[in-house]
């Protein structure tokens, strides 16, 4: 259970990082 929770949180953090990167890319293009 604990491992699953940690994995879930890591996944959320990773997705957030990707979204921020894409957002910055969009701004640079515009």
TrEMBL record:
- The protein's name is Uncharacterized protein
What does the record give as the organism's lineage? Eukaryota, Viridiplantae, Streptophyta, Embryophyta, Tracheophyta
